[in-house]
Fold these 2 entries.
Entry 1:
Amino acid sequence: MKKVWSILVTLAFLAFSIGASAVMAADGPVKLGFVYIMSGPFATYGQFAKQGAELAIEEINKAGGINGKKIEAFFEDSAGKPDVGIRVIRKLVYENGVDAVIGLDSSGVASAVAPIMKELKTPLIITHAATPDVTGKNCNRYTFRISLNENQNMKMAAAIAADMKAKTWTTIGPDYSFGHQSWEYFEKYLKEKKPEMGFLPVSEVAFAPMKTTDFSAYITKVMNSKADGVLVSLWGGNLIDFVRQASDMGFFDGKREVLLTLGAATEVLYALKDKMPEGIWVGTRYWFAGNDSPENKSFVDAYKAKYDTYPSYNAHGAYAAIKAFAAAASKAKSSDKEKVVDALTGLSITLPVGKVTIRPEDHQAITDGIWGKTAADPAYPIRVLKPVKNFTGAEITPPVAETGCKME
Amino acid sequence: MVGLFSKNFFVGFLVLILMALAPFFVTTHWVIILTEIIIMSLFAMSFNLLFGYTGLLSFGQAGFFGVGAYVSALTLTHLSSSFWVCLPVGIVGAMLFALVIGWFCVRLDEIYFAILTLGFGMMLFTLAHNWLSVTGGSDGLTIASMPVLSIFGHKIELFNPKFFYWVSLTVVSLGIIFLRQIVKSPFGLLLTATRENSQRVSFVGQNVRTVRLVAFTIAGSLAGMAGVLFALFNRIASPEMLHWSFSGKAVLMTILGGSSVFLGPAVGTAVFFVLEHFITSYTTNWMIFLGAILVILVLAFPQGVLGTLATFFSKLNGGRNSD
Amino acid sequence: MEGFLINVLNGLSWGMLLFLISMGLTTVFGVMGVLNFAHGSLFMLGAYISMQLTRWISSFWLGLIFAPIIVAILAIIIERFLLRPVYGRDVSFQLLLTFGVMLFLDDGVRLIWGPAHHLVNPPDVLSGVFPIFDQTYPVYRLFLIAMGPAIGIILWAFFSYSRYGKIIRAAAMDREMAEIIGVRAPILFTAVFAFGAWLAGLGGALAAPHQSVGPAIGEHIIIESFIVVVIGGMGSFPGAFVGALILGLLGSFGATMAPNFQMALPYILLAIVLLTRPRGIFGEES
């Protein structure tokens, strides 16, 4: 037993020496930490985001860096789990000494991490997770979002649904907050536009656990309901499995209106290719052929040249967040965290997606949104959007008072 | 015997002092890693009371860990902002759940016990995941403000990583000392006896089920204690903390360290997190390394890190001091 | 009524996939006493390899034949070099070993094929849909529903009438006795483990056209097949069949009727069965 103790003491000393050897460089490059899902069924999102981030960093470093300093990147895997997300963000801040954290795919991770940023006093720019809470009731000084959130996406969905034939709506979504909230907001916004619209009660709609690979039971449930409009908020691998199985079961036979809220993710479109039915309304946060601005053209061309694939919205999110950080840091003439936070607040910048303004009251990006109908085009290996429907940031963003955000 | 005890006591005291001084020598990041290690150590050791001492492989230990986390988060939101309330309430919550679930589970043994505990653990997971109005669903319960901890009128700022480390160290040490008392007591010997030969225990007039149920409840309560700290550490109670894969972590860390040595699970936890920390700095394929390490460990060092070292040293000493 | 029938079909197709996987799991457990955590990874490997073969030689059938064989060969290596040294040890070490193998294989697959999802098309003869009520239903699902019992019957005949089948059954019942009458346990174990892996690989290859091939495809099905094996009775073929049917139908009807409890339903069933019949529905009570 004595020996066991002495081993323990040795181990403890070892731990000390390791810990003490980790020294932080005081004046070096600008350090950015990235947290995405790099493993599991949603890992393609992390892969695209990493590519987008590396492209932006390459561009900025080639042009001389931020305030003359090069960017150094640290990538971490959140595995889509809150405790892992918190652990890696603390690691990025305390060990790598990053100047900002960028990323987050899962809303669960975002909700868990946002309050921690107050203690870490480090800016966080969310690029994908859509939960309204982090720029709503849990908003704080250090948390920003450069991508569209659920409310904005559902406002667009509701606007499109209002012009459709369907009279009664139902949903198929993932069985966690994102799926449930999407349905809630969709119902709320569509009712505002068309009070006569019907919605199935929560017990009759379909929410599938995230581990589901066979969606037939949910497809059957929705097909046998009396609804003639379906909001599908599945994403990633779930959406791929769903679309495939739903096509075979005649779900897309034209008898019902279908909205795929995250259907225009290139991660999904590349996997499905011609298995994605045509003429379906799909939503996204960014579409590579959405506008002809020089910013967009140069982004898409550079991305295509580098990775031989069209950028997804997640690739754009990571790219955009770095550009926004760079803009804020050069505006502040420093990468000091507090100064960057001040500069990010209310920042306006032109990104590939269009003009983006970070609303000072809740730190949510106000930006134009896009939905489109899937169409085949021989020029592309995947389904593209034709026609597209553009929405202005002003019309799709709920007023600050509605978000519940009280910025301290 | 007495001499050995006092030596043990002395060395244990030394390690504790060293641990307590750690925050003065390491970076904040390592303070945080150490905090997670000591909290998870208690979790793994609670599991090992069942596994190493009683011979029951539980795959539902995360359920009680999670109950502790949720109950304390709920207490903080609705009942009281005091640390002295949220910790005991969390432990008692976990204890009650362990008592009820244990009452069913101790009827079975071996692989069937493992699977049944997994089943109950996953029921608790579903409860946390789906009972939106109480548990916050998949987003979990965020702890908006840390509990107030005052000792003799001094307020201790728990959001300061160092203070939180010291509080966790204190609570976990108390838990471990308690566990030590249990396994050294006659009851602890009885537990080991049920593992070795449950029939003989019933012959001498002890009810095996009752013995196991008591062990199950103690293990569950200590897991809940770790859960309370973990929720405070992460400022959130989330459903993942109840998932069977989280229970699997306890199994893993215990066997990594060695289930036959009292502090084996704690060393396993430390090794696990330190390895994870270094490997994930170089690659996102941490799992492939973990898998390989596990396989090698099982094949070459089945007694775990601490167990192997202990055997090695006791061999050097000619078999003395084998505790 | 329409919903009911289609739900039955949905439940059966998933259930038969579960059955194929559970058969391998239950055989390995019955004969070797090993609960194989890596079984889901072998399933996943079957799906990925058949996907790759289908791309290279553009024949689903050849993929279906060769993918399970490749998985079985890999399993022989795993059994021979990793599993064999731990037979005499505590059950928990075998669990842990297969758990390690699972982590290794899952991440290894991601390293080789990347995180993207891939689609495999069913062969032309099975790729159609047929009308049922006012919707369509994929022929491939009916093929899956037929494959389950077909393979089940072939295996049942093998175990009941062939010499090797009888040896395996004898070994499952009494390992020592089998050794006394001259069965060489090491070779038998290797064969049984490879056979279980072959079934997992076959399940994966059959699942590939039914769902997308992506990381973590084995995660969901392995937990469900654990439950199937336990409630059916470990080592029992009829048990695996009945268990898979129950779980498949529970999944499809649960999704419709009890959406809030649906995730917990398999576990509730598991607890009820274990507490009333601890060795499973078809298990021998000790």
Note: Chain A has 14 helices and 16 strands.
Entry 2:
Amino acid sequence: MKLTLHIWRQKSPDDKGGFKTYHVDNLNRDMSFLEMLDVLNQQLIEKGEEPVAFENDCREGICGMCGMMINGLAHGGMKGSTTCQLPLRYFKDGAELTIEPWRSKAFPVLKDLIVDRSAFDRIIQAGGYISVNTGNAPDANSTLISRDTAELAMDYAECIGCGACVAACPNGAAMLFMSAKIAHFSLLPQGQVEADRRVKSMVQQMQQEAFGACTNYAECEVACPKEISISAIARMNHDYLKAFWPGKVVGGGKHVA
Amino acid sequence: MDTSLGFYGSSIGKKMWMAVTGIIMFLFVFVHMIGNLQIYIGPEALNRYGHFLHSVPEILWPVRIILLACVLVHIVAAVQVWYQSYGARGPVNYKIKKDPAVDYAARTMVWSGPIILLFIIFHLMHLTLGSVYQLHYTANGQIDVYRNVVSGFQHPGIAIIYIVANLLLGFHLYHGLWSLFQTLGWSHPRFNHWRRIFAIIFAYAIAIGNISIPVSVWAGWVH
């Protein structure tokens, strides 16, 4: 199959950047989207041009690196799929695709389709530690967690930090990422001592980064390649309110009384 | 670990204030709409209700002050939340951006809100302060609520302002009444599908209830 690609090219963070059009032929419809970009880059290298820079690592939808905007939809818009999992058969033969990097003040473009997502790392760092005993691994079933709770925590833990929620949000908010991380931990018994401090500190870090604010558009939920529900955001909000509820040790997780 | 920001410092805290003040204003608007429907019972009922509301200043003024405070907090927080998102997209915008999930009501909150504010000011000038035109009084010198409403809505311009404003209020509530559950963290698979139904029922009830009055005056059913 054939594709016409309008790809954002930007040499460096300071470069103005712009779209360039490429035609790629002889594509296999079962190729992944990144394999298609590999084919394009091979052509560019053979012609002596600079290949398109894009981030990728696992190519199986778990590393969160390959995010890009394809025709206005994060990761191309296929339900529950990252760009690397997106097959070319998802598009029509001869389709015209516009490929852009995530657009967010908090994610500056480094080169072409690569953005700097270290704002996410700083939020994770702000989450801090949890208090657990070191030493041997604990005995199985020594900490009981109900099946439903474990499953829900696992649903939130699926977040791969790809940034699609920020990219898709009309406000450029990072709430789905934030809340997936916070809800994942707040559901589990480990780290409950730090729960209040954690949500306060992570929200504060988010506030200091250049992310927007949530207005419940729910655009993130649709864009998320891991199909994380905005129920995570409600849980984070609940945890945030709880952390400030009167009758708490400042920054602590236990009731005073 | 820095936790010095404080509750209101984050957009989450601001939005919780918006949700709580929104609930108070929603309850007021709903009760106000129910009270207004007494116009269909007749002039005596509506006038008696209007005079009753003004009869105890010790209740009237605290309610007015609380509502005014809610309006102010709601607006200040909304502007701050909006400002945080302003420019968050970065220096360059998308060439193509699709928003499959955003509905019309959610997208226009930032417009329906200020327009409703202008309407509230107009509404107070019209029926409370009487600065749009001379208000009517009954034979015993009390304000004739019924006559003021009917003669106001017989004016097409005023009727249209009320109809448009209440349509926008319906849109605003359609998003707001659902949104507040998310903001306040009221989410559970057991009742989540009811949140949208709740928002639809009350957004429609308030919009239709209020709009029915100018329409009825226009149609000559209330005169």
Note: Residues 251-257 of chain A have pLDDT under 50 and may be disordered.
